[in-house]
Automatic annotation (TrEMBL):
Record keywords, A-Z: Signal
Domain of life (superkingdom): Bacteria
Signal peptide: 1-21
InterPro entries: PilP
Gene3D superfamilies hit by this protein: 2.30.30.830
Any Pfam family the entry gives: PilP
Protein name: Pilus assembly protein PilP
Amino acid sequence: MKTVYRLPLLLVMLASLSACGDSEETEIRAWMEAERKEIKVVTPKLSEPKVYVPFSYEGKSSIDPFDPAKLLVVLARLKAESSNGLKPDMERRREALEAFPMDSLKMVGTIEKNKVVYALIQADKTVYQVKAGGYVGQNFGKITSIDDDAINIKEIVQDAAGDWVEREAKLELQETKK
């Protein structure tokens, strides 16, 4: 008997709930319409765009600041003003070890032949013999002296102003790992 009473009760509850849903929806729609009527949309006016005034370049007769010829003139003047007179010999024939940067060269030993001391320098997998007065590295490095544990080198490089300056470098004997 209890199931007989439950079914009609359930149907009555469902009907009442569906009626509630319709009334709430109509209330919400009415509220939205009322709000739309009350709200006034205000859009600010945009300012007028600036008037474009074409510019005519009057410096056509003067030197173009981006002209490479102007740069060459300035560099030539700086070179003429350079007082130290130091510069590498660009005309001399390059030696084999000048193709390698200094940090890729390794001193692996020294030998003496006919009272002349030679340093042994390894570049890649090849060992070269060099003596004082020879050239190494890519910065016009000239070997000034060879000791048992180091090679003293004088390089000629350009500074920030473009002047040639000398700097000391040293290539030290590399210990072999056993």
